[in-house]
Specification:
CATH architecture of the largest domain: Roll
Number of helices: 6
Oligomer: single chain
CATH topology of the largest domain: Diaminopimelate Epimerase, Chain A, domain 1
Helix content: 10-25%
Order of helices and strands: EEHEEEHEEEEHEEHHEEEHEEE
Structural class: alpha+beta
Radius of gyration: 18 Å
Distance between the termini: 27 Å
CATH class of the largest domain: Alpha Beta
CATH superfamily of the largest domain: Diaminopimelate Epimerase, Chain A, domain 1
Length: about 280
């Protein structure tokens, strides 16, 4: 029997009713996959992370949604960092995930722990027209809703997301999609969330992330998608680097979240957020 302690936190917020809730299970050894899946389903949050020590500041981590294992999850990683900070102090923890090593730097600011993850090397591909058309149809959106300055792309920083940017804030505000159709499209294409965006200014983006493949209508804060977006903007030369952008997510759901995304000249994308126990 693997015994561990289960923590519940909300990430990318400083208030328990904001941000994105995650479970963080910490023990000496990871449970078997069936047990991790059962715990994640019982917790019911979009993600539960399972963490076991290797030695020193190294940890093995696996992530589960209520329906399936996910190779990487940003908001749960921020939650892990905050729990490790509270339990073990400041430092840079090395998380061995199924997609590679993800360093998480943890420090205290004004009495609240803040965590910064550095993603694996990001990449992107242009999104095929067929995929874009099918997704737009499932969303009930039109091609002329899209912002041509940020072309549709499949972006990766641990998991794949489809980035779709719209011209008008109002288009993003109205999200009412066909759950089963979109889920099937995303499973076929290996996508974890959609990164739906409206660009308010050079460094401020508003985002909504449908997550039907995780059994969740919408994710209020998606760190993995934030990292993937940062990598795409850099590689496609849609932003001048180095820079930091702010992604505001979850506001339409009443769970406001703030994701700070630092885009260096090269290497992994840095996503920073706070998390609070719930």
């Amino acid at each position: 029997m693997h015994s561990g302690i289960l923590y519940r936190l909300s990430a990318f917020t400083t208030t328990p009713d904001g941000g994105n809730p995650a479970g963080v299970w910490i023990g000496n050894n990871l449970p078997d996959p069936e047990t991790m899946q059962r715990i994640a389903s019982e917790v019911g949050f979009s993600e539960t992370a399972f963490v076991a020590p290797i030695h020193g500041l190294e940890r093995t981590v696996r992530y589960y949604s209520p329906e399936a294992e996910v190779s990487f999850c940003g908001h749960a990683t921020i939650a892990i960092g905050v729990v490790l900070g509270e339990n073990n102090g400041n430092g840079t923890y090395q998380l061995a995930t199924s997609v590679g090593i993800v360093p998480v730097n943890v420090c205290q600011r004004d009495g609240i722990y803040e965590a910064s993850l550095t993603s694996v090397e990001p990449t992107y591909t242009s999104a095929p027209n067929t995929l874009v058309s099918e997704v737009l149809s499932a969303l009930g959106w039109q091609k002329n809703d899209l912002d041509d300055s940020i072309p549709p792309a499949r972006a990766y920083a641990g998991i794949w997301h489809l980035v779709l940017a719209v011209k008008e804030a109002q288009r993003l505000a109205e999200l009412n999609y066909d759950f089963d159709t979109l889920k099937a499209l995303m499973l076929r294409d290996g996508l974890t969330t959609l990164q739906l965006l409206w660009r308010e200014s050079a460094t401020v983006f508003h985002s909504r992330n449908p997550f039907p493949v995780g059994g969740i209508v919408e994710d209020p804060a998606t760190g993995a998608a934030a990292a993937a977006l940062g990598g795409y903007l850099r590689s496609a030369k849609l932003i001048t680097v180095p820079t930091t952008i702010l992604i505001r997510q979850g506001e339409a759901m009443g769970r406001p979240s703030q994701l700070m995304v630092t885009i260096p000249v090269s290497g992994g994308i840095i996503v920073t957020g706070k998390a609070i126990r719930i």
